[in-house]
Write a structure and sequence with these properties.
- The chain is globular, with a radius of gyration of 14 Å.
- It contains 2 helices and 2 strands; from the N terminus they run ββαα.
- The longest helix is centred in the last third of the chain and has 7 residues.
- By secondary structure, the protein is an alpha+beta fold.
- It has a two-stranded antiparallel ribbon with strand order 1-2.
Length: about 55
């Protein structure tokens, strides 16, 4: 399969597109983040979007 034909998604943390990988073959529907780094930063990114109560 050509790389241009692979499915892709947008990472909700870094807003960058990432494409299907062989290691995600069985679990592609549940993959949300492009990397372990983004998966570990998911809480921080959601907190940053909230307004601060002063």
């Amino acid at each position: 399969m050509k790389k241009s034909n692979l499915p892709s998604k947008i990472c909700p943390v870094c807003d960058r597109p990432f494409t299907w990988r062989k290691k995600w073959e069985r679990d592609w529907e549940n993959v949300k983040y492009c990397s372990k780094r983004c998966a570990s930063n998911k809480v921080k990114s959601h907190e940053a979007g909230r307004p601060v109560n002063s």
